[in-house]
Design a protein that fits this description.
The complex is a heterodimer of chains A (407) and B (81).
Chain A (H helix, E strand, L loop, with lengths): L4 E9 L6 H10 L4 E3 L1 H6 L5 E3 L12 H4 L4 H16 L4 H6 L2 E6 L4 H14 L9 H5 L3 H9 L6 E4 L5 H14 L5 E8 L7 H5 L10 H4 L15 E9 H6 L6 E10 L10 H14 L8 E3 L6 H15 L5 E3 L2 H4 L6 H15 L1 E2 L16 E2 L4 E2 L4 E8 L3 E9 L2
Parallel strand pairs in A: 4-5, 4-6, 9-10, 9-14, 10-12
Antiparallel strand pairs in A: 1-7, 1-8, 2-3, 6-7, 8-15, 11-13, 14-15
Chain B lengths: L2 H16 L12 H4 L6 H13 L5 H6 L3 H11 L3
Classes of the chains: A alpha/beta (407), B mainly alpha (81).
Chain lengths: 407, 81
């Protein structure tokens, strides 16, 4: 028998804020987290735009010998997870006495790997890498660290699916819980925000060069978009069976009702329409919903010419003449990549719980492709009970989550 | 470098790296215990000495370094001329 799967806690550390309240306010007011980085310009970046993400101070929480294993992205994941556990009213006693898992999205450890190998090459000695290097440089660094720090004994797995990583992580958790294999899983995604993680990406000329107006640079679906802005941080959601949540008296925020996924089987970086459309279609089918049941779509749209246009066409193909409200919160956050599936689920949750849709800032004019969907340019009050969140990635990996409000 | 300069610098570097007050670094104090070194973080002691003094401490030598005084002496006698 399939079980209901609910979200009982959220925690985030992003360029829009370090608490749910801060992030909600930033979303509502259309605040941009995007800045110009002189460091990146001096280092040779074509585009020195990035997001302003503060590094958390973990000294009050963890001794040196545990922090030693945490690269930047795992620090974000740790602090977001602490908040999510608190939000879900899950304490260490509960984690110690129940089988709780972790499924987290991550797809790079560039800076930590680079720094360790720089030491190795400088000193010609592997010990020079230090004790933390191996644990910091493996792609599963977040799940391996957090599982030990929070003493988790359930599934312990990293999902690497490019910019859909954390959406896939949540989708997988949904399946495991729905089918009774786990009761509670810590889910999320994190993204290193340092320049080394995205230097080669900048080399592809994929980033916006609107450096004179950072807040105007990320403009998903807009006719004059010229590329994405790399972001970062961490976002965690607690995914749990309804039975488990009820039994422990947890706050039940929403229900995950559907997950769709697909592969494009096409170009490594250029998306198509058919793949995302199948992901959308499958998520609705699994949820047992029709397009008109969806009150809001949080789009993947990153502000690139090809990606936004094809996503718009995929949405239009599935939703037909129903002009569902669509926005991309990347207009405020830039592209949070491995973190985006989880962070955008949280952004959408905050909108749904607080009765608004955050405007797709900088959307001034559609182009021929993006004109086929209903992009909401300015924040507006809105009551919706079900949203859909898209995440797509390099290699043509697509993931779509559908979440329903629980009042 | 004089022995006193070595002591001062080593204490400063280790206090910073391992987040322990340098006042705990008594000459006869056990290095591993004082710095809370386990089998993994012992590697960081080797790395920090290597990076600071260009001295590689082999495992066999590491076993003979028990106290801070042993460590100061090891560095003093192995400093590149």
């Amino acid at each position: 028998m399939e079980r209901k799967v609910v979200i009982t806690g959220m925690g985030i550390w992003s360029c829009l804020g370090k608490t749910l309240d801060e992030v909600r306010n930033s979303l509502y007011t259309g605040k941009s987290g995007i800045i110009f980085s002189q460091e990146r310009k001096d280092a040779g970046f074509r585009s020195a735009l990035c997001t302003n993400v503060e590094r958390p101070d973990l000294k009050p929480f963890l001794p040196r010998n545990q922090r030693q294993f945490l690269p930047e992205e795992a620090q974000y994941a740790y602090i977001a997870t602490r908040s999510a556990l608190e939000n879900a009213k899950l304490d260490q006693d509960y984690l110690d006495s129940h089988e709780v898992g972790i499924l987290y999205g991550n797809d790079s450890t560039a800076e930590s790997t680079m720094r360790a190998l720089d030491k190795f090459r400088e000193f010609g000695d592997t010990s020079a890498c230090g004790s933390g290097a191996i644990f910091q440089s493996m792609n599963s660094t977040i799940t391996m660290n957090l599982a030990c720090l929070f003493k988790l004994r359930g599934i312990n797995l990293t999902a690497s699916g490019a910019c859909a990583s954390s959406s896939h992580a949540i989708g997988l958790a949904y399946l495991l819980i729905r089918d009774g294999l786990q009761d509670c899983i810590i889910c999320g995604g994190a993204q290193e925000a340092n320049m080394y993680g995205v230097a080669s990406f900048d080399g592809l000329q994929a980033f916006s060069i609107r450096e004179d107006a950072p807040e105007k640079a990320s403009r998903p679906f807009d006719r004059d978009r010229d590329g994405l802005i790399p972001g970062g941080g961490g976002a965690t959601v607690i995914v749990e069976s309804l039975e488990s949540a009820v039994k422990r008296g947890a706050p039940i925020l929403a229900e995950i009702v559907g997950w769709g996924f697909s592969g494009n089987g096409d170009h490594i970086s250029t998306p198509n329409v058919a793949g995302p459309a199948r992901s959308l279609e499958l998520s609705l089918k699994h949820a047992g919903l029709s397009p008109r049941d969806i009150g809001y779509i949080n789009a993947h749209a990153t502000s690139t010419r090809a990606g936004d246009g094809r996503e718009a066409m995929a949405i239009a193909q599935i939703f037909g003449d129903y002009k569902v409200p669509v926005t991309s919160t990347k207009s405020q956050t830039g592209h949070e990549m491995w973190m985006a599936g989880a962070s955008e689920l949280i952004y959408s949750m905050l909108m749904m719980k607080n009765h608004f849709i955050a405007g797709n800032v900088n959307f001034e004019n559609p182009d021929d492709e993006t004109a086929c969907i209903n992009v909401i340019p300015e924040t507006r009050e809105a009551d919706f009970d079900t949203f859909l969140s898209n995440s797509f990635g390099f290699g043509g990996t697509n993931s779509t989550l559908i979440v329903k409000n629980v009042k | 470098m004089t022995r006193n300069e070595i002591i001062e610098q080593v204490n400063s570097v280790l206090a910073d790296e391992f987040e322990v007050e340098a006042s705990a670094f008594l000459p006869e104090a056990n290095v591993k215990e004082t710095l809370s070194l386990d089998s993994l973080s012992l590697v960081d002691l080797v790395a920090i000495i290597q990076q600071t003094y260009k001295i590689k401490i082999p495992v066999t030598d590491l076993r003979s370094i028990q106290t801070f005084d042993d460590l100061y002496t090891y560095i003093e006698t192995h400093l590149p001329q």
